[in-house]
Specification:
The chain contains eight helices and 22 strands. With 375 residues, the chain is an alpha+beta fold.
Protein backbone atom coordinates (compact mmCIF):
# COMPACT_ATOMS: atom_id res chain seq x y z
CA UNK A 1 0.00 0.00 0.00
CA UNK A 2 1.26 3.48 -0.90
CA UNK A 3 1.74 5.52 2.27
CA UNK A 4 3.00 8.59 0.34
CA UNK A 5 2.03 9.74 -3.15
CA UNK A 6 3.53 12.69 -5.00
CA UNK A 7 1.47 13.63 -8.04
CA UNK A 8 2.91 15.90 -10.75
CA UNK A 9 4.71 18.23 -8.34
CA UNK A 10 6.14 21.44 -9.81
CA UNK A 11 8.12 24.05 -7.91
CA UNK A 12 9.85 27.10 -9.34
CA UNK A 13 11.77 29.77 -7.46
CA UNK A 14 11.29 33.26 -8.85
CA UNK A 15 10.44 34.08 -12.44
CA UNK A 16 12.15 32.64 -15.47
CA UNK A 17 14.55 29.74 -15.60
CA UNK A 18 13.83 26.07 -15.16
CA UNK A 19 11.69 24.78 -12.27
CA UNK A 20 13.55 23.24 -9.33
CA UNK A 21 11.13 20.29 -9.54
CA UNK A 22 9.43 19.34 -12.81
CA UNK A 23 6.26 17.22 -12.94
CA UNK A 24 7.49 14.81 -10.25
CA UNK A 25 5.36 11.75 -9.47
CA UNK A 26 6.34 8.85 -7.22
CA UNK A 27 4.97 6.56 -4.52
CA UNK A 28 6.51 5.36 -1.24
CA UNK A 29 5.08 2.22 0.30
CA UNK A 30 4.17 1.71 3.94
CA UNK A 31 7.30 0.98 5.99
CA UNK A 32 9.63 1.58 3.06
CA UNK A 33 12.98 3.37 3.24
CA UNK A 34 13.39 5.49 0.10
CA UNK A 35 16.35 7.72 -0.75
CA UNK A 36 16.09 10.80 -2.95
CA UNK A 37 19.52 10.80 -4.60
CA UNK A 38 21.15 13.24 -6.96
CA UNK A 39 23.73 15.99 -7.36
CA UNK A 40 23.45 19.37 -5.65
CA UNK A 41 20.64 21.45 -7.12
CA UNK A 42 18.69 18.50 -8.53
CA UNK A 43 15.55 19.27 -6.48
CA UNK A 44 15.71 16.55 -3.83
CA UNK A 45 15.61 18.85 -0.77
CA UNK A 46 12.89 20.96 -2.42
CA UNK A 47 10.88 17.77 -2.85
CA UNK A 48 11.40 16.79 0.80
CA UNK A 49 10.30 20.22 1.99
CA UNK A 50 7.15 20.01 -0.12
CA UNK A 51 6.35 16.66 1.52
CA UNK A 52 6.86 18.19 4.97
CA UNK A 53 4.85 21.34 4.21
CA UNK A 54 7.76 23.78 4.49
CA UNK A 55 7.31 24.66 0.79
CA UNK A 56 4.07 24.79 -1.18
CA UNK A 57 4.22 23.36 -4.71
CA UNK A 58 3.19 25.57 -7.61
CA UNK A 59 1.10 22.66 -8.85
CA UNK A 60 0.54 19.00 -8.07
CA UNK A 61 -0.49 17.16 -4.93
CA UNK A 62 1.01 15.47 -1.85
CA UNK A 63 -1.11 12.60 -0.54
CA UNK A 64 -0.57 10.63 2.67
CA UNK A 65 -2.72 7.55 3.13
CA UNK A 66 -4.75 8.69 0.10
CA UNK A 67 -5.57 12.05 1.74
CA UNK A 68 -4.29 15.31 0.27
CA UNK A 69 -2.16 17.33 2.70
CA UNK A 70 -0.92 19.92 0.21
CA UNK A 71 -2.84 22.74 1.94
CA UNK A 72 -1.92 21.72 5.47
CA UNK A 73 0.92 23.45 7.41
CA UNK A 74 3.84 21.35 8.70
CA UNK A 75 2.45 21.01 12.22
CA UNK A 76 -0.80 19.54 10.88
CA UNK A 77 0.84 16.90 8.72
CA UNK A 78 1.61 13.35 9.96
CA UNK A 79 5.30 13.90 9.20
CA UNK A 80 8.43 14.78 11.17
CA UNK A 81 11.66 16.14 9.74
CA UNK A 82 15.30 15.79 10.78
CA UNK A 83 17.31 18.67 9.37
CA UNK A 84 20.87 18.61 8.12
CA UNK A 85 22.12 20.72 11.03
CA UNK A 86 19.84 19.02 13.61
CA UNK A 87 18.41 22.40 14.84
CA UNK A 88 18.61 21.44 18.51
CA UNK A 89 17.81 24.10 21.12
CA UNK A 90 21.18 24.85 22.78
CA UNK A 91 19.60 26.14 26.02
CA UNK A 92 17.54 22.97 26.53
CA UNK A 93 18.65 19.62 27.83
CA UNK A 94 18.42 16.53 25.65
CA UNK A 95 15.26 15.51 27.51
CA UNK A 96 13.58 18.87 26.95
CA UNK A 97 14.62 18.98 23.28
CA UNK A 98 12.92 15.65 22.72
CA UNK A 99 9.87 16.56 24.80
CA UNK A 100 9.32 19.98 23.22
CA UNK A 101 7.02 18.86 20.38
CA UNK A 102 4.81 16.91 22.75
CA UNK A 103 4.62 19.88 25.12
CA UNK A 104 3.53 22.13 22.26
CA UNK A 105 0.79 19.61 21.52
CA UNK A 106 -0.24 19.77 25.18
CA UNK A 107 0.10 16.06 25.83
CA UNK A 108 -0.30 14.92 29.46
CA UNK A 109 2.85 15.14 31.57
CA UNK A 110 2.94 11.41 32.34
CA UNK A 111 2.57 10.53 28.65
CA UNK A 112 5.38 12.93 27.72
CA UNK A 113 7.73 11.39 30.28
CA UNK A 114 6.93 7.86 29.16
CA UNK A 115 7.36 8.58 25.44
CA UNK A 116 10.58 10.59 25.90
CA UNK A 117 12.20 7.87 28.02
CA UNK A 118 11.14 5.20 25.52
CA UNK A 119 12.52 7.03 22.49
CA UNK A 120 15.83 7.89 24.22
CA UNK A 121 16.17 4.18 24.95
CA UNK A 122 15.39 3.42 21.29
CA UNK A 123 18.17 5.66 19.97
CA UNK A 124 20.68 4.48 22.57
CA UNK A 125 20.80 7.60 24.78
CA UNK A 126 18.92 6.55 27.94
CA UNK A 127 21.42 8.14 30.35
CA UNK A 128 22.08 11.45 28.56
CA UNK A 129 18.76 13.22 29.10
CA UNK A 130 20.25 15.84 31.44
CA UNK A 131 23.06 16.89 29.10
CA UNK A 132 22.98 19.86 26.74
CA UNK A 133 23.60 19.57 22.96
CA UNK A 134 27.06 21.16 23.20
CA UNK A 135 28.09 18.39 25.60
CA UNK A 136 27.38 15.71 22.98
CA UNK A 137 29.33 14.32 20.06
CA UNK A 138 28.09 14.79 16.49
CA UNK A 139 26.71 11.27 16.42
CA UNK A 140 24.87 11.78 19.71
CA UNK A 141 23.37 15.07 18.50
CA UNK A 142 22.16 13.26 15.39
CA UNK A 143 20.43 10.68 17.60
CA UNK A 144 18.75 13.40 19.65
CA UNK A 145 17.41 15.01 16.47
CA UNK A 146 16.11 11.60 15.37
CA UNK A 147 14.54 11.00 18.80
CA UNK A 148 12.82 14.39 18.69
CA UNK A 149 11.21 13.39 15.38
CA UNK A 150 10.28 9.83 16.39
CA UNK A 151 8.69 10.84 19.71
CA UNK A 152 5.90 12.54 17.73
CA UNK A 153 5.03 9.13 16.23
CA UNK A 154 4.74 10.44 12.66
CA UNK A 155 3.52 8.28 9.82
CA UNK A 156 6.37 9.51 7.64
CA UNK A 157 9.92 10.41 8.74
CA UNK A 158 11.79 12.93 6.57
CA UNK A 159 15.59 13.11 6.75
CA UNK A 160 17.53 15.88 4.98
CA UNK A 161 21.15 14.69 4.72
CA UNK A 162 21.33 14.10 8.49
CA UNK A 163 24.72 12.35 8.32
CA UNK A 164 26.58 14.90 6.20
CA UNK A 165 28.16 16.68 9.19
CA UNK A 166 29.73 13.51 10.61
CA UNK A 167 33.24 12.23 9.91
CA UNK A 168 33.56 9.32 7.49
CA UNK A 169 33.90 6.50 10.04
CA UNK A 170 31.05 7.74 12.25
CA UNK A 171 28.90 8.28 9.18
CA UNK A 172 29.21 4.63 8.18
CA UNK A 173 28.37 3.54 11.73
CA UNK A 174 25.34 5.83 11.94
CA UNK A 175 23.99 4.48 8.65
CA UNK A 176 23.64 1.03 10.16
CA UNK A 177 22.20 2.49 13.39
CA UNK A 178 19.67 4.56 11.48
CA UNK A 179 18.46 1.66 9.35
CA UNK A 180 18.26 -0.61 12.41
CA UNK A 181 16.06 1.93 14.21
CA UNK A 182 13.89 2.43 11.11
CA UNK A 183 13.39 -1.32 10.72
CA UNK A 184 12.59 -1.68 14.43
CA UNK A 185 9.97 1.07 14.35
CA UNK A 186 8.71 0.21 10.87
CA UNK A 187 8.23 3.84 9.94
CA UNK A 188 7.97 5.01 6.32
CA UNK A 189 11.12 7.05 5.65
CA UNK A 190 12.26 9.45 2.93
CA UNK A 191 15.98 10.24 3.12
CA UNK A 192 17.77 12.90 1.04
CA UNK A 193 21.43 12.40 0.12
CA UNK A 194 23.92 13.19 -2.63
CA UNK A 195 26.13 10.26 -1.55
CA UNK A 196 25.49 7.29 -3.84
CA UNK A 197 27.25 4.81 -1.52
CA UNK A 198 25.03 5.95 1.33
CA UNK A 199 21.89 5.53 -0.77
CA UNK A 200 22.94 2.11 -2.07
CA UNK A 201 23.66 0.81 1.45
CA UNK A 202 20.49 1.86 3.28
CA UNK A 203 17.61 2.06 0.78
CA UNK A 204 14.79 -0.25 -0.14
CA UNK A 205 14.45 1.87 -3.27
CA UNK A 206 16.30 4.87 -4.69
CA UNK A 207 14.74 7.77 -6.60
CA UNK A 208 17.50 9.29 -8.74
CA UNK A 209 16.87 12.93 -9.60
CA UNK A 210 18.57 15.23 -12.09
CA UNK A 211 17.70 18.87 -12.80
CA UNK A 212 14.30 18.52 -11.13
CA UNK A 213 13.36 15.36 -13.04
CA UNK A 214 12.95 11.82 -11.69
CA UNK A 215 15.34 9.75 -13.83
CA UNK A 216 14.66 6.34 -12.26
CA UNK A 217 13.15 4.84 -9.12
CA UNK A 218 14.09 1.26 -8.34
CA UNK A 219 15.86 -1.11 -5.96
CA UNK A 220 19.58 -0.33 -5.51
CA UNK A 221 20.73 -3.51 -7.26
CA UNK A 222 18.47 -2.81 -10.25
CA UNK A 223 19.64 0.78 -10.55
CA UNK A 224 23.25 -0.42 -10.59
CA UNK A 225 22.70 -3.33 -12.99
CA UNK A 226 20.16 -1.70 -15.34
CA UNK A 227 20.33 2.10 -15.09
CA UNK A 228 17.41 3.40 -17.15
CA UNK A 229 19.15 6.51 -18.45
CA UNK A 230 22.67 7.52 -19.36
CA UNK A 231 22.69 10.00 -16.48
CA UNK A 232 21.93 7.26 -13.94
CA UNK A 233 24.53 4.98 -15.53
CA UNK A 234 27.28 7.55 -15.12
CA UNK A 235 26.12 8.93 -11.75
CA UNK A 236 25.82 5.56 -9.98
CA UNK A 237 29.12 3.73 -9.64
CA UNK A 238 31.92 3.78 -12.22
CA UNK A 239 31.15 3.29 -15.89
CA UNK A 240 33.27 2.93 -19.01
CA UNK A 241 31.51 4.96 -21.68
CA UNK A 242 32.21 4.67 -25.41
CA UNK A 243 30.44 6.28 -28.36
CA UNK A 244 29.23 3.53 -30.66
CA UNK A 245 27.94 3.29 -34.22
CA UNK A 246 25.66 0.64 -35.70
CA UNK A 247 26.48 -0.59 -39.20
CA UNK A 248 24.21 -2.42 -41.69
CA UNK A 249 25.97 -5.75 -41.16
CA UNK A 250 24.39 -6.03 -37.71
CA UNK A 251 27.40 -5.14 -35.57
CA UNK A 252 27.97 -2.29 -33.16
CA UNK A 253 31.39 -0.63 -33.21
CA UNK A 254 32.23 0.68 -29.71
CA UNK A 255 35.86 1.82 -29.53
CA UNK A 256 37.99 -1.27 -30.21
CA UNK A 257 35.06 -3.67 -29.75
CA UNK A 258 32.65 -5.15 -32.30
CA UNK A 259 29.44 -6.26 -30.63
CA UNK A 260 26.68 -8.37 -32.23
CA UNK A 261 23.29 -6.69 -31.99
CA UNK A 262 19.94 -8.31 -32.82
CA UNK A 263 17.34 -6.46 -34.83
CA UNK A 264 15.08 -5.94 -31.78
CA UNK A 265 17.23 -3.00 -30.74
CA UNK A 266 16.02 -1.06 -33.77
CA UNK A 267 19.19 0.89 -34.33
CA UNK A 268 19.48 2.53 -37.72
CA UNK A 269 22.57 2.33 -39.97
CA UNK A 270 25.06 4.97 -38.94
CA UNK A 271 23.11 5.84 -35.78
CA UNK A 272 25.37 6.91 -32.92
CA UNK A 273 24.60 5.47 -29.51
CA UNK A 274 26.54 5.05 -26.27
CA UNK A 275 27.91 1.75 -24.96
CA UNK A 276 28.56 1.52 -21.22
CA UNK A 277 30.11 -1.25 -19.16
CA UNK A 278 31.20 -1.52 -15.55
CA UNK A 279 34.91 -1.98 -14.76
CA UNK A 280 34.17 -5.38 -13.22
CA UNK A 281 32.56 -6.43 -16.52
CA UNK A 282 35.79 -5.92 -18.47
CA UNK A 283 37.59 -9.25 -18.74
CA UNK A 284 41.39 -9.47 -19.06
CA UNK A 285 43.30 -12.46 -20.33
CA UNK A 286 46.97 -13.13 -20.95
CA UNK A 287 46.35 -14.40 -24.49
CA UNK A 288 43.63 -15.61 -26.79
CA UNK A 289 40.24 -13.88 -26.74
CA UNK A 290 39.68 -10.13 -26.81
CA UNK A 291 41.44 -7.13 -28.30
CA UNK A 292 45.03 -6.19 -27.44
CA UNK A 293 45.55 -3.45 -24.85
CA UNK A 294 48.38 -1.69 -23.06
CA UNK A 295 48.44 -1.14 -19.30
CA UNK A 296 48.82 2.50 -18.21
CA UNK A 297 48.55 1.86 -14.46
CA UNK A 298 47.89 -1.09 -12.16
CA UNK A 299 46.98 -0.25 -8.54
CA UNK A 300 46.69 -2.96 -5.91
CA UNK A 301 43.58 -2.36 -3.75
CA UNK A 302 43.63 -5.53 -1.67
CA UNK A 303 41.34 -8.19 -3.09
CA UNK A 304 41.27 -6.57 -6.54
CA UNK A 305 43.39 -4.36 -8.77
CA UNK A 306 42.35 -1.15 -10.50
CA UNK A 307 43.81 -1.34 -13.99
CA UNK A 308 43.80 1.58 -16.43
CA UNK A 309 44.15 0.44 -20.03
CA UNK A 310 44.32 1.76 -23.55
CA UNK A 311 42.92 -0.30 -26.37
CA UNK A 312 43.22 1.30 -29.79
CA UNK A 313 42.35 4.97 -28.94
CA UNK A 314 39.98 4.15 -26.08
CA UNK A 315 40.80 4.60 -22.39
CA UNK A 316 39.33 1.80 -20.27
CA UNK A 317 39.15 0.98 -16.57
CA UNK A 318 38.99 -2.58 -15.23
CA UNK A 319 38.55 -3.96 -11.73
CA UNK A 320 40.46 -7.25 -11.75
CA UNK A 321 39.96 -9.84 -8.96
CA UNK A 322 43.34 -10.94 -7.67
CA UNK A 323 41.97 -14.46 -7.31
CA UNK A 324 41.80 -14.64 -11.13
CA UNK A 325 45.02 -12.77 -11.90
CA UNK A 326 47.35 -12.71 -8.87
CA UNK A 327 50.05 -10.94 -10.87
CA UNK A 328 49.73 -7.94 -13.21
CA UNK A 329 49.40 -8.71 -16.91
CA UNK A 330 52.02 -7.04 -19.08
CA UNK A 331 50.11 -7.10 -22.38
CA UNK A 332 46.54 -8.23 -21.74
CA UNK A 333 43.71 -8.83 -24.15
CA UNK A 334 40.39 -7.31 -23.09
CA UNK A 335 36.73 -7.97 -23.80
CA UNK A 336 33.47 -6.78 -22.19
CA UNK A 337 31.19 -9.41 -20.66
CA UNK A 338 28.11 -7.19 -20.38
CA UNK A 339 27.37 -3.95 -22.24
CA UNK A 340 24.54 -1.45 -21.70
CA UNK A 341 23.40 0.31 -24.88
CA UNK A 342 21.86 3.80 -24.70
CA UNK A 343 20.04 5.51 -27.56
CA UNK A 344 18.83 9.09 -27.07
CA UNK A 345 19.93 8.85 -23.44
CA UNK A 346 17.63 5.92 -22.62
CA UNK A 347 18.49 2.25 -22.10
CA UNK A 348 17.91 0.44 -25.41
CA UNK A 349 19.12 -2.98 -24.34
CA UNK A 350 21.81 -5.10 -22.72
CA UNK A 351 24.33 -7.10 -24.74
CA UNK A 352 26.23 -10.01 -23.26
CA UNK A 353 28.80 -10.67 -25.98
CA UNK A 354 30.28 -14.09 -26.69
CA UNK A 355 33.81 -14.67 -25.45
CA UNK A 356 36.34 -12.38 -27.06
CA UNK A 357 34.21 -9.50 -28.25
CA UNK A 358 36.00 -7.88 -31.13
CA UNK A 359 36.36 -11.07 -33.12
CA UNK A 360 34.05 -10.36 -36.05
CA UNK A 361 33.83 -14.06 -36.89
CA UNK A 362 31.85 -14.71 -33.67
CA UNK A 363 28.44 -16.14 -34.57
CA UNK A 364 26.53 -16.12 -31.29
CA UNK A 365 24.07 -13.25 -30.94
CA UNK A 366 22.98 -12.69 -27.32
CA UNK A 367 19.45 -11.96 -26.24
CA UNK A 368 18.66 -8.35 -25.35
CA UNK A 369 15.74 -6.62 -23.76
CA UNK A 370 13.88 -4.73 -26.52
CA UNK A 371 13.75 -1.03 -25.91
CA UNK A 372 9.96 -0.89 -26.17
CA UNK A 373 9.59 -3.22 -23.21
CA UNK A 374 11.63 -1.05 -20.85
CA UNK A 375 9.95 1.43 -18.48
Amino acid sequence: MARLQLEHLVKQYGRGGDPAVKDLSLEVNDGEFVCLLGPSGCGKTTTLRMIGGFLKPDSGDVRIDAQSVVNQPPERRPTAMVFQRYALWPHMTVWNNVAFGLQVRRRPRDEIAQRVEAVLELVGLPSLGRRYPQQLSGGQQQRVALARALVLEPRILLLDEPLSNLDAQLRVYMRSELTAIQRRVGITTVFVTHDQEEAMSISDRIAVMNAGVLEQMDAPEEIYARPATLFVATFIGTMNRLDATFDPSGWLRAGPFLLPVPSEMRLGPGQTVVAGFRPEDLELSASGEGVPATVESDIDLGHYRRVSLRADAASLLAFVPKALHPEPLAAPRVSPRRVLIYADGRLAGVIEPPAGAGDRTAQAVPAVVPRQSLP
